[in-house]
Amino acid sequence: MDQVPGSPQEPRDAQGDNGLPGCFRHPDRPTGIRCTRCDKPICPECMISASVGFQCPDCVRSGSGRAAQTTAPRTIAGGTIAADPRLITKILLGLNVAVFVAVMATGGALSPLVNRLDLVGLAAEPGGYHLVGVAEGEWYRLLTAMFLHQQVAHIAFNMLSLWWLGPPLEAALGRARFIALYLLAGLGGSALSYFLAAQNQPSLGASGAIFGLLGATAVLLRRLRYDMKPVLILLGLNLVFTFLWPNIAWQAHVGGLVVGAAVAFGMVHAPRDRRALVHVATCAVTLLAIGAVVWVRTLQLVG
Prior knowledge:
- The chain is mainly α.
- It has two domains: 1-73, no CATH class; 87-302, Up-down Bundle (Rhomboid-like fold), CATH 1.20.1540.
- The protein is 53% helix and 4% strand.
- The chain contains ten helices and four strands, in the order ββαααββααααααα.
- It has helices at 57-62, 87-105, 112-117, 141-144, 152-173, 175-196, 207-224, 229-244, 250-268, 275-302, and strands spanning 48-49, 54-55, 122-125, 128-131.
- A two-stranded antiparallel ribbon has the order 1-2.
- Helix 5 (152-173) packs parallel to helix 7 (207-224) and helix 6 (175-196) packs parallel to helix 10.
- Pfam families: Rhomboid.
- Its EC number is 3.4.21.105.
């Protein structure tokens, strides 16, 4: 969510609605990085790599810090600093909207596209059920269901949340790690929904991934020692809404939240000298755990 621009002299710990402070030179840009010399929040454009962490342009110009020109700037998770910290968020938002338009154009909730891509394990028939979808080996539905929405209110809420939570995380983690976080959180939500929900009831939506971003935001704020009250209040309200509102797949929300928080923890707490290894291991173990959950549930249904 955009902030109202202020002067460069505003308090350096001023917090935006998303819990992250604005850059001291660009207050409308939330950031999770601070200058290692003066502790001012700095956005990717203002970051200058130093021997330890990043420094702001003021410290470098004044000679209070020495920039390391041979090292490319990195995010707190070791990702490459991007000129546009919203690019992946925009792409994900565009994919969700494009699929929604395609669904509406081909019949809405009764669209053959929905029937081929939503998350389902059993189908009702006279005298019982028969296996369909994921239970028949169509594991791709765990991914494609993340980009399906049937109602305007549903996609509007999810995309607003994505636009609000995505850019700060994308800037703090880097593009590749942000993509991994989003997809793994969505898959985690799909897996838990497949494992626990009624298997003859289709499930779809990006809510699992969105809850993953909420969990990741909480982990990031704690790592940076920022005020966690705004995100915890938001998370609490969303969980209350999840369990009280009818026809919501709470399993997907909880699964996405747990996976998103776990993956983010591995990303932002990895030792600097083994960062890449820890990140790959975190994502690999998470993916294996998701696969195991789906495999066990499929065996239960087949048996």
